[in-house]
Amino acid sequence: MVMQRFYWIAAMSMGLLALPIITITTAKASVSVHLYELEDTNECEECDFSGASFVSRSLRKIKAKGSDFTNATLTDVDLRDADLEETLFSGSNLKGADLRDANLRDASLSGADLRGANLTGADLTGADLRAIRIDEATQLDEQDWFIWRLANDGGDNADFQDINLEHAVLGEASFQFANFTGANLGAVNLSLANLMNANLSDTYLRSATLIEADLTNADLSNAHLRKANLSGAILSNVNLLGTYLADANLSGANLAGVNLTETNLDGTVFTEADLSNADLSGLYLLGTNLMGANLTGANLVGTNLQKANLRGTQLKDVVIDETTSFSELGQLMWSLLHNGAPGQNFEDADLEDMYLAGTNLAGANFQDADLKGVVLSQANLSDANFLEANLAGADLSGANLTNANLSNAVMNSANFTDANLSGVDFSQSKLAGVSMSGVNLEGLNLEGADFSFPEGETGALRVIGIISSPLMQLPLRIEGAISPNAVSSRSDINGHRANLSEANLRFAQLANSDLQGINLLGADLSDANLEGADLSSIVDLFSNLEIFTILIDANLTRATLTNADLEEAWLAGANLSHSTLIGADLNDAILTGANLTEADLSEANLKDTDLSDADLTGATVSDKALRKAVLCNTILPDSTVSHQDCDR
Questions:
Q1: Which residues of 67-223 form beta strands (DSSP E)?
Q2: How far, in whole angstroms, is CA 629 from its chain's centroid?
Q3: What SS3 state is found at 309?
Q4: Which pTM was predicted?
Q5: How crowded is residue 325: how many other Cβ atoms within 10 Å of its Cβ?
Q6: How confident is the model over 58-103, as pLDDT tens digits?
């Protein structure tokens, strides 16, 4: 910004502002600065000219590599011999422009208006010509015309044998049943292209981009795909016999059931790929990255995986024999998956990102172990010791953790959905962002549990959702809801810092716990000890939005909330009958429709507390405190009804 201001002053001192050279149609200061720089030096690389107007101007031989001309007006402009490599012309108006011999390598012309433009001799290698507007007056070289037609019309059933389409941008085009045998498709962009049943045998595809392309039933035998990007591609029933895939990226690709036995996979990336039931027998996977890949049921007979990355790889039901060789980590993971390890000692062990779903680890010792990102869904972890272990981001959904010790453990963003947590000790543990929706937490020890993220971290979802409440005139807005539309069920709602909606927390020990911004919607906290707990709102440092603790429809019958901080908490429809709220801070809290019968509100702060439609029959509360609250259709302790604030 300082440099831009200096250039503006310099331009004024040179008298350039008096010259009506280029019309500026945008208010962005950076565009103004870059325009003057271009006029003064005929050079401005990686500059912002978006929305600017250059009508009928001479910009011949300018050097504007990597610049942004999005939505700019360039009608009848002279751009001969200009260096426009990697520039953005999306949506720009280039009608009648002279682009002869211009360098437009890797430029994006998608959606540009090129009617009447002259591009003969221009270098359009790697340029995006999709959806450009042309007419009979537009002039292109023969090869560029051909690529334009392919990019926009595709070529189903066409014969492209031995053709040279190197660097062509053909993303999203359809080439079903097309024949590319022996073609040069090096560095071609075929992302999202439909290549079902295409013949790509003996094709040169080095460094090609095939992200999320559909290659179902395609023939890639003997094709050269080194350093190609096939992330997310569909390769069902593809022929990879003799295919060279060294250093290729197949992360997230679907290769289920594919035969890879005659394929070169040195350095190939298969992170999160589906290789279930694939045949990798006899392969030497040197430097192959299989992190998070699904190899369930894969044939690994004779496969050498000693130098492969198997972090988080699913090895369930893989077929192996004595000729299969794993790294030490891979051998441990396979052994645990298939044999379990009840009662074994894993103290200080590094098990980060391991896939151990369904494993029997009952009574095992994981004290101080690194279990970040581990998958232990459906595992038997009853009586296991996780004292001071790191389980951040772990998946424990459906796991049996009966009587497990998780005290002082780090479990930020862990998933406990449907887990059995009976008798678990969570005291002094880190639980920021955990999901325990619907989990039975009855009688658990959560004393001193910390639901706050370390500084610089967040688990907050960024979507704003709506919950309609019959007890309130306006819908409630909850930051962290997973749907931007109306939420129809409580299970759809995630809290900002932790999701404990519908959880059973009866008799839970939560004294002095930090529960700011937690979602406890519909939770059962009857007889729980929340003395001194902080249930107030919190400001998200990333979005600067205020996040409210959600206790809507929660059951707090007989709960102890002495000196609890409930400032701005949402307790609409909550059941607080017979609860103890002595000295509690309920400033600005929402208790519309709440049941406070026989509750003890002695010395509680009720300033601006919304008690509309609430029932305080038999409650202990001073008249002075009630005068500070919002009362509308409120049943007072003596059973009379107050309407004093209904007009507010």
A1: none
A2: 42
A3: strand
A4: 0.69
A5: 16
A6: 999 999 999 999 999 999 999 999 999 999 999 999 999 999 999 9
